[in-house]
Amino acid sequence: MEGERRASIVIGLSMKHHRMQLPREVIVGSGTIEQVAEISRRLGFTKSALIIAGSKTNDIAGKTVKDLLEDENMEVNTHLVETATAKEVMAVEERIKSVKPQIVFGVGGGTKIDVAKCSSAHQDIPFISVPTTASHDGIASPLSSIKGFEKPYSVMAQAPLAIIADTNIIMQAPWNFALSGCGDVVAKITAVKDWELAHEDQKEYYGGYAASLALMSAKLVMENAELIKPDCEEGLRVLLEALISCGVSMSIAGSSRPCSGSEHMFGHALDMLKPNCSMHGARCGVGTIMMAYLHKTSWDRIRDTLEKLEAPASARELDVENEDVVRALEMATTIRPERYTILNKQNLTLESCEKLAKITQVIR
Ligand SMILES: [Zn+2]
């Protein structure tokens, strides 16, 4: 059974079982894509594979993956996708049913990996993540974000069986992708604060190990901000390892709790008001500044770090109007009512939202 190869830990927690589905191989570094066939063989996949990629990411990395696997006499099919929609997921599921691959590879940035993760999970086929950007923690998480499945946020799918992150490939992506990744990692500061709050106020399950892992990732990126710059492989590795650790922290928690709190709700609200105005992590990074203020934690340090990284820290840098930020703040509480955060304790009016955005200099 393919499923049995995956590292899976079940721990008895007071009342119910807690299942952690973790990646088995994580390979980060320069030229790691060359190891794709070897990793596949090691995991027991020697016959067939299906590659999910976008037209661009297929040229950047998908074709290389195909060639390397075919060199080992594997039967490899490629399915190109453009967007992360329910329709695309269903089309990939049909393709999985017809070609019956042993393993699915998701090659690309956010959307391609999301589609590969979600469709393979539905069809009970393991998947390997081959990110071509470092733009968010979905490259390693068990959750996928698909438009058309009702929820504007990520839902459980499956953890990648392996993650092959080739820094040579990821360095070729435009730099704003990495800056989005930085925002998504910094966001863990307020996400963990919100989780602690939910534990205190609502007696929600809280996993200290998952929370520490997410928080440590944020600290590492903050401390190494000067290393994270274009053409610096060392800095990119710090960011990639942080994003992967965040993904693993969600696998350990069994939900997105350690990585997604009020700052993500702001980000999702802004995306609903101004679709695709800016990247996911960039929006969440700006949300983190404001939510950190509400949590009475060092919001200015977060803003300074984002500025040092040259990542967006204001409405203007997110390419939206001041009013959009204020409205997104007001809307944030309604995005995910079941997820208790600092916003539940605030009762923010439009006026206080504006004040919050002004104090934190998100709107100037
Ligand atoms: Zn995120």
Summarize the SSE layout with pairings.
Elements: E1 7-13, E2 16-22, E3 25-29, H1 36-42, E4 48-53, H2 55-70, E5 75-80, H3 86-99, E6 103-108, H4 110-122, E7 127-131, E8 143-144, E9 155-156, E10 162-166, H5 167-170, H6 175-186, H7 188-202, H8 208-223, H9 233-253, H10 262-273, H11 280-294, H12 299-309, H13 322-335, H14 350-359
Helix pairs in contact: 3-4, 6-9, 6-11, 7-8, 8-9, 10-11, 10-13, 11-12, 13-14
The structure holds zinc ion.
Residues 136-137, 184, 260, 264, 280, 284 line the site of zinc ion (ZN).
Comma- or semicolon-separated keywords:
single chain, 364 residues, alpha/beta, 6-stranded parallel sheet, two-stranded antiparallel sheet, 10 strands, 49% helix
Explain this structure:
There is one protein chain. This protein is an alpha/beta fold. Helix content is 49%, strand content 14%. It has 14 helices and ten strands. The protein has helices spanning 36-42, 55-70, 86-99, 110-122, 167-170, 175-186, 188-202, 208-223, 233-253, 262-273, 280-294, 299-309, 322-335, 350-359; strands at 7-13, 16-22, 25-29, 48-53, 75-80, 103-108, 127-131, 143-144, 155-156, 162-166. The protein has a six-stranded parallel sheet with strand order 3-10-7-6-4-5. It has a two-stranded antiparallel ribbon with strand order 1-2. It has a two-stranded antiparallel ribbon with strand order 8-9. A hairpin with a 2-residue loop joins β1 (7-13) and β2 (16-22). α10 (262-273) crosses α11 (280-294). The longest helix is centred in the C-terminal third of the chain and has 21 residues, at 233-253. The model has no long low-confidence stretch (mean pLDDT 94). Residues 136-137, 184, 260, 264, 280, 284 line the site of zinc ion (ZN).
